[in-house]
From TrEMBL:
Record function comment: Catalyzes the conversion of heme O to heme A by two successive hydroxylations of the methyl group at C8. The first hydroxylation forms heme I, the second hydroxylation results in an unstable dihydroxymethyl group, which spontaneously dehydrates, resulting in the formyl group of heme A.
Region of interest: Disordered: 1-26
Predominant place of localization: membrane
Membrane topology: Multi-pass membrane protein
Protein name: Heme A synthase
Transmembrane segments: 40-58, 123-141, 153-172, 192-211, 231-255, 295-315, 327-345, 351-369
Iron among keywords: yes
Cofactor requirements of the protein: heme b
Length: 386
């Protein structure tokens, strides 16, 4: 049967199947809801880790970290249930160098005070582990983890497990009899620095993932084309420098060096602390001499602030207002942290001021990460906003 020829301007009918047309945002079409849910889950972990760092700082400042002398990941979650349990735990604490050299004669009430701080610190660690495990397995089983994110989320769990092991490695240094031989009543400062440093690494990865999940993959790919590579590189340097300063701050806390020289800008009667290399071998002075450790923390703080100003001035030239604002927030918080550090030294690391200084480090760490993120993935803006 012959077909009737089509007219020149005749519209094509719907009798033939149409080819699928590309849709905007196709790269984000799969598992779009999972990104939001995972981001909320990570925000919870973010808040818990931040609280963990603060409680860890208070545990150190109250000298509570050695009140529990055993590492019992499962059974240790239960607190003492009766008087006999308290007596048993107290007797174990009495065998530690800290009790014998520093707290001899401590009452049961005083022991219970430091015990609850350490128990709460460890319990929060267990809660964080449970929140991660439940969330990760839930998203994994339901296949709601976006492509490329399984290893990233698994990394947080691996680092969390490692953190628990390092925490016990740190506590064990304060229970070891070799500490008593050199007159040490606290944990080894370099182990404390390792423990705190890893906490900030976990905190940093969590924050970075939250930033990435806050935008679609297509938006990130497009914004990456406008990245300020030089500013990203410089902010990465600030991030590493700030991490080094955090580690030195942990050394200060580990040996109570913050109480050693309540003067500023001088350290006592001079710029340098007196007799900074009395300990043998020499390397011990960089970890255990209060004057030298505090001096390193001060000098690193000054240099970090100067470097921060240089990066901030570079960021002011950016045409992106979000980048400029991010680096402005960073330098303002950096200045506040310098002031807090000076006040902490002048007040001999008073409990409330010292913990405020540590909270300041957490806030600054996040702001540096955010500035670095926006230099790599700047948000779009209109020509007028630029």
């Amino acid at each position: 049967m012959a077909q009737t020829p089509r007219k020149l301007f005749e519209e094509v009918g719907d009798d033939k199947p149409k080819a699928d047309t590309p849709r905007a945002g196709a790269i984000d079409a799969k598992r779009r809801g999972a990104r939001g849910a995972i981001r909320i889950w990570l925000m919870l972990i973010f808040a818990l880790v931040a609280l963990m760092i603060v409680i860890g700082g208070l545990t150190r400042l109250t000298d509570s970290g050695l009140s529990i002398t055993e590492w019992q990941p499962i059974s240790g979650a239960l607190p003492p249930m009766n008087e006999a349990d308290w007596v048993t735990l107290f007797d174990k604490y009495k065998a530690t160098p800290e009790y014998q050299l520093q707290n001899s004669g401590m009452s049961m009430t005083d022991f219970q005070f430091i015990f609850w701080w350490e128990w709460g610190h460890r319990l929060l660690g267990r809660v964080i582990g449970a929140v991660w495990a439940i969330g990760f397995l839930g998203f994994l089983v339901t296949r709601n983890i976006p492509t490329g994110w399984t290893k990233r989320l698994l990394l947080l769990g691996v680092l969390g497990g490692l953190q628990g092991a390092i925490g016990w490695w740190m506590v064990h240094s304060g229970l070891d009899s070799t500490g008593q031989e050199i007159g040490r009543t606290d944990v080894a400062s370099y182990r404390l620095a390792t423990h705190l440093g890893l906490a900030f690494v976990i905190f940093g990865f969590t924050a970075w993932y939250i930033f990435l999940l806050g935008r679609t993959e297509s938006d990130l790919m497009q914004s990456r084309r406008n990245a300020n590579k030089k500013l990203f590189s410089m902010s990465t340097g600030v991030l590493h420098f700030a991490f080094l300063q955090i580690l030195i701050g942990a050394l200060v806390a580990g040996i109570d060096a913050g109480r050693a020289f309540p003067t500023w800008p001088m350290m006592g009667d001079g710029f340098f602390p007196p007799d900074p290399f009395q300990l043998s071998p020499v390397w011990r002075n960089f970890f255990e001499d209060a004057g030298l450790v505090q001096f390193m923390h001060r000098m690193a703080g000054y240099l970090l602030f100067i470097f921060g100003i240089v990066v901030y001035l570079r960021a002011r030239k950016s045409s992106n207002k979000y980048v400029r604002r991010a680096f402005t927030a960073m330098i303002v918080m950096m200045l506040a942290q310098v002031v807090l550090g000076i006040v902490t030294a002048l007040q001999s690391a008073h409990l409330h001021i010292a913990i405020t200084h540590q909270i300041g480090a957490i806030v600054l760490w996040v702001l540096i990460l955010r500035a670095r993120y926006l230099s790599a993935y700047p948000k779009s803006q209109s020509i007028r906003e630029a």
